[in-house]
Structures are given as C-alpha cells and as structure tokens.
Design brief:
The complex is a heterodimer. By secondary structure, chain A is of the alpha+beta class. Chain A is built from 1 helix and 8 strands; from the N terminus they run αββββββββ. The longest helix of chain B is centred in the middle third of the chain and has 29 residues. The chains are: A alpha+beta, B mainly alpha. At the A-B interface, helix 1 of A face helix 2 and helix 3 of B.
C-alpha cells in the first residue's frame, strides 16, 4: 500500500468485490420467501367472434381479472410482469397459447387489484378451430429482482369455452 | 498562507517540520508519505472497516426491507473508509525512516572500489 493511487485502487477493488458478495447474499435471501398468490378471471362478454378474410378465427372478449400477488414481493423485487394467456388444443397443435393481456406491477401496493378490460392482444387462431372450443386461462407472473435470478410461475384456471357459432 | 503560519500548522498537525527548508522532513520526495508500519495499519483499517460496513449495510437493508438503504449505508461506509485510509494522515507516519541529510552524507564519502587487473585467462 505504497502510494495514494495504490491504496485508492485497493480500496475500490475490495469494495466492489464485497458489493458483489452482498448482492449474491441478497439474491439468496429471496429463497426464504414462500409466496401464496391467488387470482380469478371472469369472462364478462364475448364481444364478437368471426372468421377473418385470411381464414383464421378471431374472438374479442371482455374479462374481469382480479388477483392478490402481494406475497410475491420481497425487499429485492423490482417489478412483477404478469400476463393472461388462453390455452387450448387443436388437431394440428397439442398446445396453443395466445397472450391476451399483460401488465407490469411496480410495487407491492399495486399487487392486489382487479381490472375490467377487453383483450389487449388479438385472440387469433391458426385456422378455424375455435367454434365451441374449451380453453384454460392461465395467469403467468415473472418476478424480476433488483439483483439476482428472475423466477416465473403461473395459475391455471379451467372451465372456459367459446360459443358454437360465429357472432 | 505565509511560510511561518504554514509551518506552525504543519507542526501542530504532527508533521515533522524543518525550519530551514519550511518543508516537512520526509525526503527524498517532496510529497507526504507513510512509513511501513503506517501502510500496514492503513491496509488493516481499510479491510476491517469495509467488512464491518458491508455487514451493517446488509442487516440494515434486510431489517428495513429496503434495498436502497443497504446501498446507501454501504456507499457512505466506503467513502468514510476512503477518507480515513487513503490520505497520508500523520498518525500513519509515527515510525518514520530518517534519511541522512545531504550535508551530512558529504562528510562521509563512499568507499572507492578498486578494480584489480588480475585476470585468469584461458589459453586455448
């Protein structure tokens, strides 16, 4: 530790190394958190259900999404990204997933909410298999930390179906 | 600041001051230096202070549930550590090495090395 510059370099290097260790421990402390989220989605209305000029089915619906995701937040959470996807099976694909709506929850206070909305993104099928189709609505969430690894999980809600005829 | 007041201030702070040159006696360079004991002390203080502040910052952040608090406490700790260990404070120079004064060195000339012309040659 001979000179001013030498000591300054030593201090900064050691400080940054310790900061990296602190961030690692912070990220590991997230494992002590056991989340217990809950959600409910109601389809209020099928606005319209048509076959597009290219031949694909499209449906527009209004839904009421209510959820309590407060237990997902820790001191190391920056934001939670959530989205609602419709999942169903067709002859061609064993699983189709179509994202209908998403949002970013920036803080714990906003994590308990309900929203009445039409689908943000178009619900279009690859083909015309949607008449009378039974589908699941899944609420996915991605927890984005301030430091560390992102984690994701979902809730699957079953029992939804589309009308038999176009409207 | 006049040389006199600068001198008085330096001697008050603990720097050894010479009246002739109005500069601290730490030669050979004109910069203030630390002695060997001081360097070791500075390194120890730095490592211990940084670790203590890191632990304090993590505990504070975890208890308060605030990541920002952890970073702020740690940044404050790093700055404080830097202020204490990086500049050449006088308490790092309590065991100074007293270099020989140039006028004193002239009185004791270096011994001359005589090169003897004895060579052992290997004749082919």
């Amino acid at each position: 530790m001979h000179s001013f510059g030498y000591r300054l370099n030593g201090l900064l290097t050691f400080a940054v190394t310790i900061l990296a260790l602190m961030c690692a421990i912070t990220s590991l402390s997230d494992n002590f958190n056991t989340p217990s989220p809950s959600a409910e989605i109601k389809i209020m209305n099928i606005n319209w259900f048509q076959k597009q000029p290219q031949g694909h089915d499209e449906v527009s619906l209004t839904m009421n999404v209510s959820a309590d995701l407060q237990s997902l937040f820790t001191w190391n959470t920056k934001q939670v990204f959530i989205f609602v996807a419709a999942e169903y099976e067709t002859r061609k694909n064993s699983l189709n997933q179509v994202s209908l709506w998403d949002a970013i929850i920036p803080a714990k206070e906003h994590a308990k909410f309900w929203i009445h909305t039409s689908n943000k993104y178009r619900f279009v099928d690859q083909g015309n298999n949607l008449r009378g189709k039974k589908f699941n609505l899944t609420l996915h969430w991605h927890v984005m930390p301030k430091t560390g690894k992102m984690s994701a999980d979902k809730i699957v809600l079953t029992g939804y179906s589309l009308p038999e005829e176009y409207r | 600041m006049s040389y006199f007041t600068q001198n008085s201030l330096l001697s008050f702070l603990g720097y050894p001051v010479s009246l002739q040159t109005f500069l601290p006696l730490s030669a050979p360079s004109l910069h203030f230096t630390m002695d060997w004991q001081g360097q070791k002390l500075a390194e120890q203080i730095m490592q211990i202070m940084l670790l203590v502040f890191a632990v304090t910052a993590f505990v504070a952040g975890y208890v308060l549930g605030s990541f920002q608090m952890m970073v702020l406490v740690y940044a404050g700790g790093v700055t404080l550590t830097g202020l204490i260990t990086i500049p050449n404070w006088p308490f790092f120079n309590r065991h100074p090495l007293n270099w020989l004064d140039p006028s004193e060195a002239e009185k004791h000339p270096k011994p001359q090395v005589t090169v003897s012309s004895k060579k052992k040659g290997f004749k082919k």
